[in-house]
Every structure is written in structure tokens, then in C-alpha cells.
Amino acid sequence: MLHRVSAQDGSYRELALFNEVLDKVRNDYVDKPSSELALNGAIRGLIETVDPEGGYLSAKDVAFYRSFDPLKTPGIGVILGRTRAGYPMILSVLPDGPAQKAGLSTGDMIESIDGFPTREMNLVQVDGFLANPPDKPANLTVMLRKNNFDPESMTIPRGVAKAPAVDSKMLENNIAYVHVPMLSTGKAEEARKNIDDLLKKGATSVILDLRASAGGDETEGIALANVFMDSGTIGYTVGQKSEKRTLTVDPRAALTKAPLAVLVNEGTSGPAELVAGAIRDNKRGQVVGWTTFGNGSVQKLIPMDDGAALLIAVARYYTPTGKDIEEVGIEPQVKITSQEEEQIDLSAEREVEIPAVPKKDVPANNEDRQLKKAIEILKDPQAAKKAA
């Protein structure tokens, strides 16, 4: 029965092909290969080709995965994502952590840790290497974005990073500015209180800064989106064998209908992408910046008989209009590119692009152009009306 079923869906032929290739490698390769290494490599390739965030975990990896907490486990104070090229990329650098003190930032990629290349590691293994040994510094080779990804060696002490605080202040024209660097436990409520305080002080519109906001929990993303929404949905999850689960808005949890702009970049990942996608698809506000990282899967640890496990996605997150966050990230309505600045029509229905100033023309005060554009949008009557 198993062979008949496998033959029907093509699995039997695929397994036969794998066995044929393995047999030829054993017989014809210049050296006698390790069957265990070959099998582990094939398993790793299978999982990570279909799920860059997943992996085949040894029993030791499983134990680390179950205990890992980026805010409690020693490391260098970063939240990572895996690029399509296979390298772990820094999405967020935790404030006052070892990585920030060493000058690392969003977009930098880690090429090796203590002499071990990272390209063949899954993210659990990368976090494990960054955590151990906790009492010794990590020797890294990092491809720095600011240096056109030229590799640079650096030694960074390991330590435990603190949960980053929500930052808020009042800007010109009574605009409330709130930066949420990570949606860990309690951060949605912290942001809500800060926004409420600024509204009571006279704020008439809000800028929510989710740039380099990575990591955290789905429930925090839902709660933060709900601060600004009293109807609609925040998104949904669904998978091959996972029924559709809709993330609904609680009208009682809504705080404000004030015009809203949301800042995002390539370091915006996970729960923060849920927020940006919900705001955009429900036409609740303007999303400003550039395409987010695209980390939108529900991962499940599937134990194996020998203590190892598979970590794979069993469902994906979608925005309210059905966009797959994992595949494309969140596209902002107001985009940033690297070309010369152009005039835009804020009342137009089409998506607009706001090119960034080339590096050689960056103002001496290192002006935050995304923030400036969000302020302009909220100051403009038509744009504010559209954002509301």
C-alpha cells in the first residue's frame, strides 16, 4: 500500500532517484564518502530549500531551541533572518547590546562564527554558536552593508541583551511619534500607554516606527494593530494541513482613529509585519519606507525517533487581502529608492516612490528622510484624510 501511494504522488520515484544518486556517489567518488554526512546534507538541503527559516535539528540543537530566548540567552544582541543566499542577516540590533556597541546594524550578514561558516547552518544553529561559550567573546566574520558587504573580522563579547524600551515623543504639528523596536511580551501595551499619553497631551496624528522591529510574539502584533483598528481583520494563517485561522479585530480594544503613518524597512519582520500589513490593507494609514523582510510562517518542531527534530513551517501568515508575507514582505504605499528625489501626488491612488538621497548628498545632520516624509504626509490635509 505504501509503495502504491508513493507511486501515485511521485514520492517513490523521487526516493528511487535519491538512492541511485547516493549509490553512485558511494561507488564512484574519489574518496569513500560518509553516508551519515551525505544523508544529513541531503536532509538539510531538502528542508532549507523549501523553508529558509526551518532546519534539521540534532538532539543538542533541540535542547537549545527549547530554551532559547533572545532576551535571556547570552549572545551578541541581534535578531536574525536567513537570506535567500543562505547567510544569516541582522534584522535588528538590540539597544546597548554587544553588537550595537561593536557597530553592527540592520542588513549586515554573518559569514562565520569562531571559524565555522554559517552558510550551511540553520538559524537555530547560528543562534547556538553565537551563544556558546557564554564566557568567551565571539570571533566573527561579518559582511558589512556600509562597506558594500566586504567581509571584516571582529571580536564581540557575549552577553545578555535587555528588552528594548518603546520610545515616544511629540513632534511638530502635534504628531505623536512612537518607536516599537521589538514586539516582545508587554510591548504592545507599553506602546498603547505611550500613544494614549500623547493623545491626551494634544496629539492629532500618529507616526508608528516599526523599522528594524523584529522578533516577538504574534499576540503582541495583533494587540498593537488593534490600537488603531476598530473593524476588519489583521490577517490570517493557513497551511496545507492547517485550517484557516483569522486574526480578528476587537472593537473594544481600539484606541484612536487619528491619521496614521507607519515606518518600515528591510529589518521589519514577524509580528511587526502583521501590523504594517493590517494597516495597509485596511486603508487605515500610510506605510512609508521600503519592503519588509518577509518573515511570515508558523513553525512547528516535529520530533524524530533519535531525539533529533524537524523545524518546519506548517502555515503561513497572510495580510487581510491575501498577500503572502513570507514570500514578498509588506510593500509600502510610499516607497524609498536610491534615485534622485521626485515630486509625488499624495492624493493619487497609485503607489508612489520617494527615492532616497544618494550617500554623497546626505545632509550633514544625517536627516531621517523617512520620518520627514511621514510628517509631510500627516501635515498634508489630503494625505491625512486618506490616512484616516
Share in β-strands: 15-25%
Q: Give me the CATH superfamily of the largest domain.
A: 2-enoyl-CoA Hydratase, Chain A, domain 1
- The portion of residues assigned to helices is 25-40%
* Coarse structural class: alpha/beta
CATH C-level class of the largest domain: Alpha Beta
Number of domains: 2
Q: Main β-sheet: number of strands, strand sense, barrel status?
A: 7 strands, mixed
Question: Can you count the helices?
Answer: 12
Main sheet strand line-up: 8-9-10-13-14-17-18
CATH topology of the largest domain: 2-enoyl-CoA Hydratase, Chain A, domain 1
What would you call the shape? globular
* CATH architectural name of the largest domain: Alpha-Beta Complex
Low-confidence stretches: 1-7, 338-365
> In angstroms, what is the radius of gyration?
23 Å
The overall strand count is 18
One letter per element, helices H and strands E, the order comes to HHHEHEEHEEHEEEEHEHEEEHEEEHEEHH
Overall average pLDDT:
86
How far is it from the N-terminal to the C-terminal residue, by CA?
A: 59 Å
Helices and strands in order, then pairings?
Elements: H1 2-9, H2 11-28, H3 35-50, E1 55-57, H4 59-67, E2 78-82, E3 88-93, H5 98-101, E4 109-113, E5 116-117, H6 123-131, E6 138-144, E7 150-156, E8 167-171, E9 175-179, H7 187-200, E10 205-209, H8 218-228, E11 233-238, E12 245-248, E13 260-264, H9 271-281, E14 286-289, E15 297-303, E16 309-318, H10 325-328, E17 334-337, E18 352-355, H11 369-379, H12 381-387
Parallel strand pairs: 9-10, 10-13, 13-14, 14-17, 17-18
Antiparallel strand pairs: 1-16, 2-3, 4-5, 4-6, 6-7, 8-9, 11-12, 11-16, 15-16
Helix pairs in contact: 7-8, 8-9
